[in-house]
Amino acid sequence: MTTAVVSSPTSSTTSHRGIVRQLMTDSAYVIVGFPLAIAGFVAVLVGLVLSAGLIVTGIGLPVMAGALLLARIFADLDRLAIGRILRLPRVRPEYRTAAPGAGLFKRVIAVIGDSQSWLDAVHALVKFVLSIFGFVVTVVWWAGAIGGAFYWAYDWAIPRGDDEVDLNTLLGLGDGTGPRLLLYTAIGVFFLLSLPIVVRGVALLQANFSKAMLTGVAEMRSKITTLEGQRRAAVSAEATALRRLERDIHDGPQQRLVRLAMDLGRAQQQFDRDPEAARRTIDEALTQTRETLDELRSLSRGIAPPILVDRGLPSALAALAGRGVIPIDLSIDQALGTSAGRLDPALESAAYFVVAESLTNVAKHSRAEICRIAVSREGEDLRVEISDDGEGGAHVSKGHGLAGLADRVHAAGGQLTVTSPAGGPTLIQATLPI
Fold first, then answer.
1. Which of 88, 395, 401, 413, CA to CA, is 20 to 30 A from 363?
2. Closest Cα to residue 412, out of 366, 346, 354?
3. CA 317 → CA 304, 311, 359, 385, distances in Å?
4. Which of 354, 362, 356, 318 is nearest to 336 (CA)?
């Protein structure tokens, strides 16, 4: 069977409209930005030069601060404009400010001592040079596109002397109106077809420079803050898990092992004088052994199981759901278990513990009758959802298991959302970046 793919006229029209809209946006950014760049260049340059000359008089510093504040205004205008060019949200850095109630001198020093203020000033000076280049190129291309494409409409109105030689004659394309119209129209078509690309290029040149100068430091600081938060969350999650494991081992298996040792010692003493009592003591010791093994299996759920390492997330979650105390409906993308579709081990571990901790809460607190688990890949994220029909009331707070789970998800760069009104139902959603 042969399948023909036919382009939709509607989608083609929408694409053309998108190109025209982007061309208008880029052209407006370059052309309108040129007079703004001139104003910013003059204001900042005059302010800085004047402040340098007046520095010995005592008013040079306030004048310098004023010049930097003017640069900040022009920088804010450019930040608003580059968002539409780069298709990015607006990012405004946090400028250094003086303490509330501070005097004039401290406010002036706060402005002068802010590194971003100086980047704004450098941007105003350098952007002027880029704006000249961008403005000239944009105007030339627009003029070439409009003038050449419509040359046929006004060729008759152009006066020509007897001694004038047209370009088509110099190029050897022939003399007369026909070759001239053909050549100039072809040049206009070339400018027209390349206009979106050229204008887009000069707009991106200016916008990327502005982004690097005006928001680059702010974005870097934001990334550093995010990484520090993830590191603290990872340390907190591991510390919480370790304390919980130590407490559970001390309160559970350790006490049972102590009692098991005492029972075996008592049975050893009873062998000679009361074999029947020794047999009962050994039976109790076997019961203690089974219960200890059950508790160790329960505790091992906080540690990545071998099946997760060997066979991947689908098999590990299937095994986890099979041990559930209530019916569990599991829906997971089986491609996550293949060699080509497997995720990073840290991400698999985080997703596994989201499900494991959620199922523990369901078993202990929810009084639910059914639980549903859905794990799927959505674009560049892994989405994990656990829902139940229990009585609700789950929340992320210190002292609850979901708090450590939130730290673990945050450490992986993801986000955890818990929706659990009183009376239920409960929905736990985790989004983890792949």
1. 413
2. 346
3. 11, 11, 11, 13
4. 318
Burial environment of residue 275 by CB neighbours within 10 A (0 to 12, 13 to 18, 19 or more): exposed
Q: What is the pLDDT of residues 118-144, one digit of tens each?
A: 999 999 999 999 999 999 999 999 998
The one-character DSSP state at 303 is S
Q: What is the pLDDT of residues 176-212, one digit of tens each?
A: 777 878 888 888 889 999 999 999 999 999 999 988 8
What tokens were used for 211? 């982004």
The single-letter code of the amino acid at 371 is C
Instruction: Report how far Cα 374 is from the mean position of its chain's Cα atoms.
Output: 23
pLDDT, tens only, 287-301? 777 777 766 666 555
Per the listing, tokens 């002397």 go with 161
Rounded Cα gap, residues 188 and 363, in angstroms: 74
Q: With contact defined as beta carbons under 8 Å apart, do 134 and 206 qualify?
A: yes
DSSP symbols for 194-244: HHHHHHHHHHHHHHHHHHHHHTHHHHHHHHHHHHHHHHHHHHHHHHHHHHH
Q: Between the CA of residue 353 and those of 243, 313, 408, 412, what are the distances in Å? A: 16, 11, 9, 12
Kindly give the residue spans of alpha helices, DSSP state H, lying in 3-114.
Answer: 9-53, 60-86, 104-112
Q: Are 189 and 16 in contact (CB under 8 A)?
A: no
Query: How far, in Å, CA of 267 to CA of 9, rounded?
Result: 89
Q: If phi over 0 gives left and psi between -120 and 50 gives alpha, with beta otherwise, what is residue 256?
A: alpha
- Cα separations (Å) of 375 from 74, 260, 342, 366? 48, 42, 13, 21
| Amino acid letter for position 90 | R
Distance CA 45, CA 90 (A): 26
Find tokens 């049975």 and name the residue.
267
- Which one, of 285, 303, 204, 169, lies nearest residue 245 by Cα? 303
